[in-house]
């Protein structure tokens, strides 16, 4: 679903769009859909016109999974909330690529999957309970483990700055660095953490990216996202819970489990994924 025309800076990040069509008056998703049809004619690919706000409340009932790309935080939380309110369970995933950095969030509400058998241990059914995006980002920073990736905090700072200044994601430049550092100071103080929690260099890299999305990083995020979608739909294999981050500086993907805030100490799981 998309309601915006194609933009050359966005079109240039996709391997699905031929160079000669970059200046086309068609939307980005329409161009992608035409290429995807050529990849596998047996799969029915369509593009829904307009925006979700224009659709009836029961529109999402037609889907098992909803994936939201780069968008405002309040929009992602809104869609996540709609997925949770629907009668049939709808899985929600969001992805954001900012230059060489990326983030994926997953909310499967309650999910049952088959754990693969190991040696003398037979396969078994496992259950996972997820929190919403709104609940996850409400977690107190001073109660998260010290090893939590700094990219988690940096993304929250960028979202806060964009929302407070009525900016769309990616509508930032290095000229905003001083203001973003002020946002970091305010958030860190309110969360009981020092400003050094999020290095200047990391915020500098996010601002330098502006609206650009690096194709190799998009491919990595897309691969991880596709892998998780297969797990969700098949019910086989343990899915990520609930954040995935990628930073080429260390060449590894990192999963972080950020639970909903409560009155009990947070015991969080994190793991590295070789890319």
UniProtKB/TrEMBL annotation:
GO molecular function: SUMO activating enzyme activity
Single biological process term from Gene Ontology: protein sumoylation
InterPro entries: ThiF/MoeB/HesA (IPR045886), ThiF_NAD_FAD-bd (IPR000594), Ubiquitin-activating_enz (IPR035985)
Domain of life: Eukaryota
Pfam families membership: ThiF (PF00899)
GO cellular component, one term: cytoplasm
Domain THIF-type NAD/FAD binding fold: 14-252
Coiled-coil stretches: none
Protein name: THIF-type NAD/FAD binding fold domain-containing protein
Organism: Ceratopteris richardii (Triangle waterfern)
């Amino acid at each position: 679903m998309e309601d915006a025309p194609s933009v050359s800076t966005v079109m240039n990040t996709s391997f699905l769009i031929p160079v000669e069509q970059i200046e086309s008056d068609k939307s980005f998703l329409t161009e992608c859909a035409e290429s995807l049809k050529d990849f596998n004619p047996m799969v029915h690919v369509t593009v829904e016109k307009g925006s979700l706000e224009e659709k009836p409340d029961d529109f999402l009932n037609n889907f098992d999974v909803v994936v939201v790309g780069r968008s405002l935080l309040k929009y992602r939380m809104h869609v996540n909330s709609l997925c949770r309110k629907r009668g049939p369970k709808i899985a929600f995933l969001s992805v954001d690529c900012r230059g060489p950095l990326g983030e994926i969030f997953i909310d499967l509400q309650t999910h049952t999957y088959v754990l693969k058998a190991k040696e003398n241990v037979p396969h078994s059914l496992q259950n996972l309970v997820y929190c919403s995006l709104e609940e996850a980002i409400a977690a107190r920073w001073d109660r998260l483990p010290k090893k939590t990736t700094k990219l988690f905090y940096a993304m929250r700072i960028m979202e806060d700055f964009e929302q407070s200044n009525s900016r769309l994601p990616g509508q930032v430049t290095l000229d905003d660095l001083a203001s973003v550092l002020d946002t970091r100071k305010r958030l860190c103080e309110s969360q009981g953490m020092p400003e050094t929690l999020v290095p200047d260099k990391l915020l500098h890299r996010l601002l330098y990216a502006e609206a650009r999305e690096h194709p190799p990083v998009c491919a990595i995020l897309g691969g991880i996202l596709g892998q998780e979608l297969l797990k969700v739909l098949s019910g086989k294999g343990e899915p990520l819970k609930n954040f995935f981050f990628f930073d080429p500086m260390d060449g590894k993907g990192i999963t972080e489990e950020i639970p909903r805030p409560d009155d009990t100490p947070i015991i969080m799981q994190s793991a590295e994924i070789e890319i």
